[in-house]
Each structure stands twice: as structure tokens, then as C-alpha cells.
Task: inverse folding
């Protein structure tokens, strides 16, 4: 069977496919090239760069395409609805980047709390602005988690080790689950009002698009910080800019953006924002795990077995 890989994938994952006698084409393709070729392949594996739009899914379904694999968690770059309609399985690797994304979220919290980016850039300019860099400790502060999945759970474990108090909001979170996380279950409004740091760990869906808007930001303390290492689009970036610019919240750290790269974003102008270019899963370990887990799922489908991480299971 033939597998098309159109985004960067760990060498270990490509080797796994070849060792299991799959024919592999490994090449970044633009939309038109992918549209022309997709019908020839039994499987397509992507990361976040490739946009698997409805026309690509339809063309694949008219040929041999049986499964689309996402070497990562989010599948917002794949038309899952169309794939479901046409009987094409969508699989992912939700556990691959858990540790890496969680560690980045905590790193961003520390960077905000101690103004590390500002300290670094000022030192490299030959400045010594020690008096301007008074920070805050994480110890004893309240961390509000929006989302209670694998990444949020790992963030909670690290935060407990730092001596933080934890609140968690999720429609899917029970008191028992919160207790296992070392957290207290709360409403979204309670999390926003009571937390010193708010970290987002939710997918981008119709329900979560701009979940954190002007109304929600107005609930946060003026001394609070917002961290988004989840998905672009769950925060209204224009509203966030206004709140940061006017000092209505203390700062934010953003790894994901509604438009990537965030060309012309006003957030780029602010000192009280720490920005990174969607690097949550960009560690050697996460890339190997995400790639090999995704390949395992794709191979299971092609062998007629049931995958473990089946996004559009009905």
C-alpha cells in the first residue's frame, strides 16, 4: 500500500513505514499538487502545515484513500466532517506532545513571572535594568486551567510541585477527575476571576472559538497572566491586545495564533507579551512520539484493525 507524507516527520516514523513494507512518498506538496496526487494513495500523513480541505478529501475518496493521519493532536487543518461523510478514517497522536506542550506552558509562566525575555534582551543591549525587573513567585499563586485533558493534567502535576493552588474548568471535568489532578473544579467565571495565571488547554471548535473574549478578559485580575499554548483562535487577539495595552491584565504568553505567522499582529508591539512561533510540540522527543504513534494508527487502519486514536469514530 502507498502512503503519502507531506509534512516533516521524524525519521523513526518514516523508517517504521518502510520496515513494514509500505511504499512511502515523503515530500512537501502545495494544495494543487496534493489534489492531483492524493487519489493514488491509501493513506495521507500530515502535521499542521498541510491543509486537508474538502476537495482534497473528495479527490482522495474517489481513489484509494482510506485514512488521514495527523502527527499531533489538533485536526483543525483537516476537514473531518467531509472525511466522515466519505468513510475515510481520521487518526491522530494525542499523547505524543503532552509533556513538551505542558513544559512550554510552564516555561511561559516562569518567563512572564520573572520578565526573562526583557531581562535577556536588555542585557544584550548592554543595559543593567535590575530595578525594572521585579517579578512575582509562582509559589502560593493560583493557576487556573481551562481544559482537563492530558496536557492540562501534566501542567497540574508540575504546578503542584511549584507550590501552586490549582483551579480547573472543563465541561468534561468531574470532582473526582479534578481531585486526581490535585485541583479544585470551578466554573469558567470562577477560574478567570480567582486565578493569578490562566492557562488554556482546549481544542479549537465552534464552541471554543474566541472563548476568551472581551467579556471573559474583563473577569481577570489586573495582576493576572494569560497563557495560550493550545490553539490559535480560542482567544480574541484584538481584545487581548487592548487589555494588555491598557494594563487591565498584567501579561500574556502566546504560542499559537489565529493567523500563523501572525503578520501585522499588534501583539508583536507589546513588552508585556511573551511570544513563540507554535513550538509546543517542537522537541526531539515529541516529534518522535507523535510521528511513530501516528504511523502506528495509520498502519492499523490499512491492516483492517481498529485504531486507538480514531478522531471520527461513529
Result:
Amino acid at each position: 500500500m502507498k502512503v503519502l507524507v507531506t509534512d516533516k516527520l521524524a525519521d523513526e516514523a518514516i523508517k517504521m513505514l518502510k520496515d513494514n513494507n509500505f511504499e512511502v512518498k515523503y515530500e512537501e506538496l502545495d494544495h494543487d499538487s496534493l489534489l492531483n496526487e492524493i487519489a493514488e494513495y491509501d493513506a495521507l500523513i500530515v502535521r499542521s502545515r498541510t491543509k486537508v480541505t474538502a476537495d482534497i478529501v473528495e479527490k482522495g475518496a474517489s481513489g484509494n484513500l482510506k485514512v488521514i493521519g495527523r502527527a499531533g493532536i489538533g485536526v483543525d487543518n483537516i476537514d473531518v466532517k467531509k472525511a466522515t461523510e466519505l468513510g475515510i478514517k481520521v487518526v491522530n497522536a494525542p499523547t505524543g506532545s503532552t509533556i513538551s506542550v505542558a513544559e512550554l506552558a510552564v516555561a511561559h509562566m516562569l518567563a512572564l513571572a520573572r520578565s526573562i525575555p526583557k531581562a535577556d534582551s536588555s542585557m544584550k543591549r548592554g543595559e543593567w535594568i535590575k530595578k525594572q525587573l521585579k517579578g512575582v513567585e509562582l509559589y502560593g499563586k493560583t493557576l487556573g486551567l481551562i481544559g482537563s485533558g492530558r496536557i492540562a493534567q501534566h501542567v497540574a502535576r508540575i504546578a503542584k510541585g511549584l507550590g501552586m493552588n490549582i483551579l480547573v474548568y472543563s465541561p468534561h471535568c468531574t470532582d473526582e477527575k479534578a481531585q486526581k489532578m490535585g485541583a479544585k473544579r470551578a466554573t469558567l467565571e470562577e477560574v478567570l476571576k480567582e486565578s493569578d495565571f490562566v492557562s488554556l488547554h482546549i481544542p479549537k471548535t465552534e464552541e471554543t472559538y474566541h472563548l476568551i473574549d472581551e467579556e471573559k478578559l474583563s473577569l481577570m485580575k489586573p495582576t493576572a497572566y494569560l497563557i495560550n499554548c493550545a490553539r490559535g483562535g480560542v482567544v480574541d487577539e484584538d481584545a487581548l491586545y487592548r487589555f494588555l495595552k491598557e494594563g487591565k491584565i498584567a501579561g500574556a504568553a502566546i504560542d499559537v495564533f489565529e493567523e500563523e505567522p501572525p503578520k501585522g499582529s499588534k501583539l508583536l508591539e507589546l513588552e508585556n507579551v511573551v511570544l513563540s512561533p507554535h513550538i509546543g510540540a517542537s522537541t526531539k522527543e515529541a516529534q518522535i512520539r507523535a510521528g511513530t504513534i501516528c504511523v502506528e494508527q495509520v498502519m492499523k487502519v490499512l491492516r483492517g484493525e481498529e485504531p486507538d486514536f480514531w478522531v471520527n469514530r461513529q
About this structure: The longest strand covers residues 142-146. The chain has a mean pLDDT of 97.
